[in-house]
Amino acid sequence: MQHSEPQILPETPLRADRTRALPRLVARAPWWVLLLVGLACVVFGALIILRPLSSLATLGVYVGLSFIVSGLADLLTAGRDATPRLTRLLGSAWIAAGLIVLVWLGLAIDVLPVFLAVVLIATGVVSTAGVMRGSADQRAAALLFGLADIAFGVLALFWPDVTLLVVAVLFGARTVIFGTATIWSAVLIWFGERPADDAGATPSLLRRWARLGGAIGAVILALGASALTWTIQPGAAHSDAFYTAPGELSGEPGELLRVEPFERGIPDSAVAWRILYTTTTDTGAPTLASGIVLTSATGTDAPRDAIAWAHGTTGYATHCAPSLLADPIGAGALPALEQILDAGWSLIATDYAGLGTAGAQPYLVGGGEGRSVLDSVRAASQMEEIALSGRTTIWGHSQGGHASLWAGQLAESYAPELDIAGVAALAPASDTIGLVNHLPSVTGGSVFASFVAEAYFAHYPDVTRVEYLEPSARTLVREMSTRCLSAPGVLVSVLAALSIDQDMSIFRSDPTQGALGERLRANTPRGDIRSPLFVGQGGADPLVDPAMQRAYLAERCASGQELEYREYAGLDHMGIVGPGSPLIGDLLSWTQDRFSGEPATPNCAEAEAAR
């Protein structure tokens, strides 16, 4: 049986396709090598299709090694070329490029979407420029493929994280296809046959229609993706001049800087204003925060008690401030707005520093969150448009529960003049270490992990992306942190999170260890809260684990903290503050008792028993 050798086309030093190092290496290999390589590629490709985050790193390594192999091939064959100096120069350049890719893998992956977008747009322009050559079906196909490439290039700029995941999956698919083709070539060579080469044959009618149909399909796919982009990524709200400081921040924290009427998403029975005020970061540096103050449009002119509301997660980016969103009150999951108004209470709802205003949001950075809450009360008390009694109860849910616990423990030292009648934390993110440990088991948990990561990178110089983030995850984390949870575009983040959560963690180092672990522990609220404390928790909460909450509260009770704990069986993270939740009646009754001066009824013994 005769085994013929596969043929290859001569290479030139100017050839642009430098990532096909493997095909070049095996082109002259015997049939059994082709078979082994093909089988390995099929298995490897199938695995990385299911592991997109891993395959991005693999793709980066493959590209880097391909550049190096191609450069070495140029150097070895330079003597046989017409321009040996140019060949050696290009070979050295490709080797250098490969080393750069391998050393700075994260940077290489970060620029991959932009590189791909430029290549697609350039390819599309070249393709459309060549529509005057070839047969009618070739010209039509070239035009359609060119337009599709341009559209996909633009989309790559809009969706860099999705582009990376698609590239990863396509890399796996291409590896499978290459492996299958290599196996087929090995089989043909074994039987003494040469793979068909019909490059010079006239295309059949079926091939012409297939080519045109493929081009039409590419255009339809590009149009569909463009329509989806338009639908789920509308223009985000942006901060206006209201959110900028009128001058240097030289005043005391809690100074009211600006106030104006606010109507979007406010019930007809209420009147509201948005406010801008000074506050401080967790390190004491002056900064700005915004918020909404709301009260009933009817009733007595007597000073009113207030609820200081710390909202749940709306997103990490500046434009995710509740006062900028379409539903400013509902976005942060405030419960019982109608009952608040009926009770004659006012609502003071901070956005937190860095939401709406410039700077990084203190997401689960307790000092910054708690100060934003306390300073919003100080600022609202200076308003001429509303009269407040001074008695304030703090409510918070999820991230806001973490903020309310921190506001409670900071109140005595940071804002001793405030009369904090009580603190209510609903499904609070109380144990930051426990929460970050738990996120990998939460559907779409990488979205919240990205918020934590970006906030801690921004606030703590000793917590770095290089140390804690997988190189292949950096673009994904950055993009996920730019989308608000109430915006349609969050679907992109959720899909990205689902695709990577089944693969590997976004963290290359254990986030509960080292500098990040120390910072997370420091932001767990373990200080004493002198005001009566109420903690409500859903028994079926998938995000804030009830067992984790019980352990945290047992620790607090053991340290002497008095609190009242209520766990509601069958309720999840949002259900606990949703309409019909039994927590709402308990919360309102407990709050009324605080304003009335009734004694609190701690139940630490019950909380420890529930554990």
How would you explain this protein's 3D organization?
The protein has a 9-stranded mixed beta sheet, with helices on both faces. The longest helix has 31 residues, at 160-190. With 611 residues, it is an alpha/beta fold. Strand 4, helix 9 and strand 5 (346-350) form a beta-alpha-beta unit. 50% of the residues lie in helices and 11% in strands. It starts with 20 loop residues before the first helix and ends with a helix. Helix 3 packs across helix 5, helix 3 (52-77) crosses helix 7 and helix 18 crosses helix 20 (604-610). Residues 1-19 and 197-202 have low confidence and may be disordered. It is built from 20 helices and 9 strands. It has helices at residues 21-26, 31-49, 52-77, 84-103, 105-129, 136-158, 160-190, 205-232, 337-342, 366-380, 399-414, 432-438, 445-459, 465-468, 474-480, 490-501, 514-522, 546-558, 582-596, 604-610, and strands at 256-262, 270-280, 286-296, 304-310, 346-350, 388-397, 419-426, 533-538, 564-568.
Following the backbone from N to C, one meets helices and strands in this order, namely HHHHHHHHEEEEHEHEHEHHHHHHEHEHH
| Tally of helical segments | 20
Question: Could you give the distance between the termini?
Answer: 75 Å
| SS strand fraction | 5-15%
Largest sheet: 9 strands, mixed
Tell me the structural class.
alpha/beta
Strand order of the largest sheet: 1-2-3-5-4-6-7-8-9
Count of beta strands: 9
Residue runs with pLDDT of under 50 for 5 or more positions: 1-19, 197-202
User: Mean pLDDT, nearest integer?
Assistant: 82
Helix content: 40-55%
Shape: elongated
Radius of gyration from the alpha-carbon trace, in angstroms: 30 Å
